[in-house]
Amino acid sequence: MSLQRTAQVLSSLAVLTRRGFIHPRRFGADLRSAKIAGRCGPFPAMISYTARYDPDRTAIVDRRGSVSFGALERSSNALARGLAAAGLGPGDTAAVLARDHRGMVATMIATGKLGVRLVIMNTGFAGPQLRDVAAREGITALFHDDEFAAAAADLPAGVTRFRTWADDPRPHGAARLVDDLIAANTSDPLPLPAESGGLVLLTSGTTGTPKGAVRKRISPLQSAQLLDRVPLTPGGVMMIAAPLFHATGLGQFTLALALGKTVVFGHGKFDAEATLAAVARHRADTLIVVPTMLTRMLDLGPEILARYDVSSLRIIASGGSAISPGLSARTAAAFGDVLYNNYGATEVAAVSVATPEELRRAPGTVGRPPVGVRVALFDPDGRQVTEPGSPGIIFVANGMSFGGYTDGRDKDRRAGMISTGDVGHFDHSGLLFLDGRSDDMIVSGGENVYPVEVENLLVDRDDIADAAVIGVDDPDFGQRLRAFVVPQPGAELDADEIRLHVKSQLARYKVPRDVVIVPEIPRNPTGKIVRAQLSLIA
Predict the structure, then answer these.
(1) What's 119's DSSP letter?
(2) In b/e form, how buried is each residue of 448-485, taking b as 16+ CB within 10 angstroms?
(3) Confidence class for position 345, pLDDT limits 50, 70, 90
(4) Which of 161, 310, 335, 445 is 20 to 30 A from residue 537's alpha carbon, by CA?
(5) Structure pTM?
(6) Nearest to 75 by CA among 174, 198, 180, 169
């Protein structure tokens, strides 16, 4: 092992010990947990560990109430046995299409214990998109909530179906209820599978059909990347509003299990006020969101925000898409210095984290890489960009990067690093900033424009609730900028005034020629703008 690698391992161990992830007096249990993680994946390992030492501690709170770590361990064993009896085992690929609740979690744990590869599907999928992804991934079994039965019906008859959440407990076609399988089988532990089936997360799919990013093995040491710059501690309560089908929610959920935290899930689709109420009711110390959720909470206004005592919050961790400088400032004004801006990607996991202090000093920054992560910028010709303020494509090296897409394609790799597809720059102090997606770049009159700069300027206005910018064909300039803006309730927007506002703040070539007022901006469930849909609006 090289000196650099040795130093990284020691630094990671120091982080995990400091955060309470590793227990010096439970060294044997930590080794056993690492073995389970290598053969079953992270979820069985973390549940098994906490169930061993604190079985009665509440693991999950959902619409049905609470469930302990011990009960979740036992029910996942019973479910795994029921699934094995139904013919599911190593070499199979299953998918789950569900909201965040105990049924989904039990499915993730049970399939891991069987060595089954699991694809976590986006709950925004319609039938045709679900069918396309299922065919590409070779799905043989689908776990789904009753809410998604219509989409599930689009799959071939040969795909075995299991119901993870029943709106009506009576039989529903041939699909068996997960709860029934749990009730019908013993909860005795299972032997470990020969190897992990792996977990497949899907990309956001904003530019087409989502791609599958598979991870076969994840070392417990890699959790240090998520804990290094965010002060999560053992125990306490984490409210997860971000969906588990996205890396932001799933990554934080994994850490919560490892730290023995109680996880509170929302009740179905995101509700801003209900989330605040849940934080207050459960005295949550941590809230996991994507930026659009944070915006909707703040848009409730001071009167509604004041109804809920959320003083227990020490951490609001946001990820999934960029946070504008204005949103960072609004969050600090409403909740205090608790916002951590996480930047990552499905393919590379953690990239960097901005702390509250860094966001105060440099609003909008995505901070610095954590332990074990290396970030560099390259120009399109492959030359490294080192000058502060100069943009480049972001490349990342860490132990959590994926091994390629399930369809055989891969991200651009350079010097042992993987491209995130984003363009960014470092400032003179080493803080990283995102300038936009490389494939979103607009070339207007020979000048390169990234929409995010204009979008941030627009959404920071008091009379604009949301905004998006795309490039459209122009006979004189090649492309021109078209801005779509959503007015705040009761506001009246003037297109000419908006253009003048942008002109007063940014370079001439960044001023939108067209300003279109719309009722909403199309976004996917994690808050990313679906620009392809905007191009269809005249």
Answers:
(1) E
(2) ebbbbbbbbbbbbbeebbbbbbbbeeeeebebbbbbbb
(3) confident
(4) 445
(5) 0.87
(6) 180
